[in-house]
C-alpha cells in the first residue's frame, strides 16, 4: 500500500508538480523509505520486489541533486540489459520533464558505436547504460566521469548473476571517490555485500517486503 505523500519529501517543487501531472500522488513504500536518505546524500542499498517503484526512487534522487546548468555527466545508471536501460531512461525523461533541457543518453551494447560516439561528443547530464559498453567508452577516453555525483546500480543482483562484477569494479575505478552510490536490487545475494564494500561508504540498507 502507498504509505505517504510526495509533498512530505523535500523534493524540488518542480519535480513534485510534475509527479502530480504524471498521476503519481503517493509514494510507494520503497520510495518513502529511500528518498529521504537519498536526499540526505547517503549511500543506499535498497531491496524491494519487482514493480515496487525502484526506478522513480533513485531517479528522483539523482534529478533532485542535478545541476541542469552544468552540462557534464553528473549521474550514471548501470543496468543489466539494454531493455532495462531503455525503460529506465524513459522513466527518467518523464520525471525530468519539469526541468528544462535535461539530456539523458543511453549507451548499451549491441548498438552501433558511431552514433554513440557522436552523442558523447555532444554531451549529457545523465547516462544510462550496460556495464560492458560503459567500460568500453571509459577505456577509450570517450566518456569522463570526473563530474559524477550519483552512481546507480539498478538490478544489481542481475548484473552480478550475469558476471558483470569485474566490469563494475573497473567502472568504479573511473568514478571520483566523492560521489553518492545507490544500489537497487530485488534480491540480496551475498556478493552484493562485497560489491558494496568496494564502492560505498557507510551505506544505509533499506529492505521492503511488500510490493507497494
Ligand atoms: P521496479 O524497478 O521496482 O521493478 P518500476 O520502477 O519499474 O519498478 O515501477 C513499476 C511501475 O510503477 C512503473 O510503471 C512506474 O511508472 C510505476 N510507479 C512508480 N512509482 C509510482 C508512484 N509513486 N505512483 C504511481 N505509479 C508509480
Ligand atoms: Mg527496476
The hetero molecules present are:
adenosine-5'-diphosphate, magnesium ion
Low-confidence stretches: none
| Fourth-tier CATH superfamily name | P-loop containing nucleotide triphosphate hydrolases
The CATH topology assignment is Rossmann fold
Radius of gyration computed on alpha carbons: 16 Å
CATH architecture: 3-Layer(aba) Sandwich
Strand content: 15-25%
Q: Strand order across the biggest sheet?
A: 5-6-4-7-8-3-9
Strand count, sense and barrel status of the largest sheet are: 7 strands, parallel
Q: Note the total helix count.
A: 9
Through-space gap between termini: 5 Å
CATH class: Alpha Beta
Question: Helix/strand-derived class?
Answer: alpha/beta
Question: How many beta-strand elements?
Answer: 9
Give a topology summary.
Blueprint: E1 4-5, H1 13-21, E2 26-27, H2 29-39, E3 44-47, H3 54-65, E4 75-78, H4 82-95, E5 104-107, H5 113-122, E6 126-129, H6 131-139, E7 150-153, H7 156-161, H8 165-172, E8 180-185, H9 191-199, E9 204-207
Parallel strand pairs: 3-8, 3-9, 4-6, 4-7, 5-6, 7-8
Antiparallel strand pairs: 1-2
Helix pairs in contact: 2-3, 3-4, 6-8
Bound molecules: adenosine-5'-diphosphate and magnesium ion (MG).
Organism: Thalassotalea insulae
Family: Belongs to the DEAD box helicase family.
Protein name: ATP-dependent RNA helicase
Amino acid at each position: 500500500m502507498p504509505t505517504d505523500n510526495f509533498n512530505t519529501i523535500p523534493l524540488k517543487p518542480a519535480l513534485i508538480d510534475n509527479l502530480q501531472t504524471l498521476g503519481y500522488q503517493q509514494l510507494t513504500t520503497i520510495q518513502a523509505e529511500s528518498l529521504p536518505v537519498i536526499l540526505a546524500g547517503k549511500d543506499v542499498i535498497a531491496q524491494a520486489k519487482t514493480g515496487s517503484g525502484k526506478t522513480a526512487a533513485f531517479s528522483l534522487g539523482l534529478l533532485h541533486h542535478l545541476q541542469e546548468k552544468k552540462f557534464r555527466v553528473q549521474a550514471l545508471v548501470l543496468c543489466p540489459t539494454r531493455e532495462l536501460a531503455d525503460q529506465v531512461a524513459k522513466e527518467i525523461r518523464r520525471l525530468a520533464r519539469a526541468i528544462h533541457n535535461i539530456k539523458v543518453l543511453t549507451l548499451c551494447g549491441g548498438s552501433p558505436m558511431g552514433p554513440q560516439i557522436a552523442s558523447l561528443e555532444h554531451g549529457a547530464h545523465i547516462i544510462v547504460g550496460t556495464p560492458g559498453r560503459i567500460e568500453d567508452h571509459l577505456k577509450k577516453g570517450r566518456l569522463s566521469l570526473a563530474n559524477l555525483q550519483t552512481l546507480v546500480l539498478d538490478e544489481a543482483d542481475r548484473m552480478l548473476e550475469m558476471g558483470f562484477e569485474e566490469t563494475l569494479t573497473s567502472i568504479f575505478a573511473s568514478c571520483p571517490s566523492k560521489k553518492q552510490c545507490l544500489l537497487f536490487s530485488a534480491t540480496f545475494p551475498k556478493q552484493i555485500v562485497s560489491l558494496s564494500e568496494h564502492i560505498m561508504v557507510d551505506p544505509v540498507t533499506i529492505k521492503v517486503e511488500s510490493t507497494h
